[in-house]
Amino acid sequence: MNETPFPAVAAAIRKTLEGQGFTKLVGAQVVSVDPGAVVMALDRRPDVLQQNGLFHGGVIAYLVDNATTAAAATMIDRADRSVITAEYKINLVAPSKGDRLTCRAEVVKPGRSLTVVEAKVYCRIDGEEKLVAVALATIANLDIKTA
Amino acid sequence: MNETPFPAVAAAIRKTLEGQGFTKLVGAQVVSVDPGAVVMALDRRPDVLQQNGLFHGGVIAYLVDNATTAAAATMIDRADRSVITAEYKINLVAPSKGDRLTCRAEVVKPGRSLTVVEAKVYCRIDGEEKLVAVALATIANLDIKTA
Amino acid sequence: MNETPFPAVAAAIRKTLEGQGFTKLVGAQVVSVDPGAVVMALDRRPDVLQQNGLFHGGVIAYLVDNATTAAAATMIDRADRSVITAEYKINLVAPSKGDRLTCRAEVVKPGRSLTVVEAKVYCRIDGEEKLVAVALATIANLDIKTA
Amino acid sequence: MNETPFPAVAAAIRKTLEGQGFTKLVGAQVVSVDPGAVVMALDRRPDVLQQNGLFHGGVIAYLVDNATTAAAATMIDRADRSVITAEYKINLVAPSKGDRLTCRAEVVKPGRSLTVVEAKVYCRIDGEEKLVAVALATIANLDIKTA
Hints:
The structure is a homotetramer. By secondary structure, chain A is α+β, with helices and mostly antiparallel strands. Helices cover 25% and strands 41% of the residues of chain A. The first copy, chain A, has 3 helices and 6 strands; from the N terminus they run ααββαββββ. A 6-stranded antiparallel β-sheet of chain A has the order 1-2-4-5-6-3. Chain A is globular and about 45 Å long. At the A-B interface, helix 2, helix 3 and strand 3 of A face helix 2, helix 3 and strand 3 of B.
């Protein structure tokens, strides 16, 4: 049963993500929130890198964690339900040596209790987006409101 | 062929981890580096949390990423080899609402080209360590020195 | 609330596993069913192998799928609940060139809606058990009886 | 360096898959082998099912294991190299209660030492293909010929 109009759902998701202490620390941006799809991004700066000047794998995982969970949350339109990350797998497939990371998460299969979400992370290197990570996540839907 | 004594290997791993821009930003500590096992930890503060006051899943993933890769690195004793994270899966199994996270990574199976590492993340809640995440990682060994 | 005595729970799990068409085709055995732990095994014969004479990865996955789900089922003691496999990850860590596979699954974290289970698969090679696969699974608990 | 023409590569992969003892036991078919993509299928019969009349999860994993590894093998065009499955994660997203399973595997990122492959498994239910599983696999490329 659809109780809340999507723009209000999207605004609430965006507000939750942007209000997280860790999101502020990392400096990530919510690029877009659409039904079943969320895009987040992060610009390069020294304190999100690892020892070789690449974006840190933990930063990539942070984007995957947040974007996949938020994508699942777009399918939850009732004020009395919420989502939590159950698990995800991430493959780091190329060095992220560029100046901006973009994570695109898309729901593959919504479900009553579990939603499965795919994510791809791209790094802008010399002006071109290159795939640097692929992920597959399971998000649990709860019958309570946690936030 | 063992070319470098372990204390020197461990010191180099610790220095690499502690020198990462993102490790400094997150504020994580390297608790111990032993053959096949690395422990990292992080104390609670507002900017490593999510919206409900729990440690952020991305922080847990950061610890898993670093500790599993470092545990694999302890098996690489030659100065001309290095490791990179190929992939990992992480299950978040309980809310991390305590005051300190500890990630214990242990090599399950070292290999010439791939090393498989397990990790468990505990959160200290009211003085007791509780399991909050379980992970399984694949680390690739390279025949070049990256850092 | 514990409504069914464990021996009856274990007997029902064993009967379900052994009654599966695919279990009969593969020829696997249920070695033991204990609270939170299930062991399954399979002896070598040509039609469970791949092209190099090793146990087929699909056979190893079959054991992991069944043993982890059954281990989660041991935690469900009410007649009106059941389990289904949500997802799992499996690392094949060494060639399974021996004469018997044994998969040991253990619940890491039981939960109301999701149970997380680890599994290790060993192959008996020249009389010694060697680790050949490691897995991490998420099993969903349903409020209905499916079988 | 491309040394072998693709039709010969594809024929060798098909022959390897079809010659596996376990493939014959399961009764799976190789539908197509293209550069970076392999499709396999299996028709319903009682001995590939689980207790509720659905295709067994182990059968789905078998298709994923074989199709993803074969898709990676299509990128290996030299006679002195080969592939082995390093790991995969599989999400079972809907009950496979139809009459035919089809697994479509596609290479996401080929690499010198590791190739990452996605797979989707569909079940034909009442004449329509429905997504029943999603997988993400890491295949290792070896500098030796194993088969």
